[in-house]
Design brief:
By secondary structure, the protein is mostly helical. It contains 6 helices and no strands. Helix 1 crosses helix 2 and helix 2 runs antiparallel to helix 3.
Length: 160
């Protein structure tokens, strides 16, 4: 469905900025559930609403891992699922969550930049191929016909 894909895409594009804010909050000394709550901004759109729901679930007593897992299952997004699984594993392992969130954010941003570069390269190749087919090939064909005509004329002049 188009709406679902649009929601997923909106969440994926807001995720790096949200993770950066959450990482900053954690580095400032906040616990992760509070840091995730404080990082919510209206500009994050659908992600903000979903994270509000996760925060409300954790405030009402549900484990953060369970609330995040439910969010990752709600959307068919490999980026969101990978991010949440890394966060959950980081929580279980007791790793530095602030650094983890920042690294995930940088990885997602890098992935989007690579996608944009690939799209630009494909567009360049497409323009080159269209130019070669529409302009260069007919031009070379016309020049080869003219060259054959000149060579035939020169050949008949030399033989006579």
């Amino acid at each position: 469905d188009f709406r679902i894909a649009r929601r997923r895409e909106a969440i994926e594009h807001a995720l790096p900025d949200y993770l950066q804010l959450a990482a900053s909050n954690i580095r400032a000394g906040m616990p992760i559930d509070r840091a995730l709550w404080v990082a919510i901004r209206p500009r994050f759109g659908i992600l903000a609403k979903e994270m509000e729901y996760v925060a409300k679930q954790t405030i009402s007593g549900e484990k953060l891992e369970d609330a995040l897992s439910a969010l990752s299952k709600k959307y068919d997004s490999a980026i969101l699922q990978r991010t949440i699984s890394l966060v959950i594993e980081g929580l279980r392992a007791g790793s530095e969550i602030g650094a983890l969130l920042e690294n995930i954010s940088l990885d997602i941003t890098d992935m989007y930049q690579r996608r944009e570069n690939m799209a630009a390269n494909v567009t360049q190749y497409l323009i080159f191929i269209i130019f070669a087919v529409a302009v260069a090939a007919p031009l070379l064909f016309g020049m080869s016909v003219q060259l054959l005509t000149v060579l035939n004329t020169v050949g008949t002049d030399l033989s006579s």
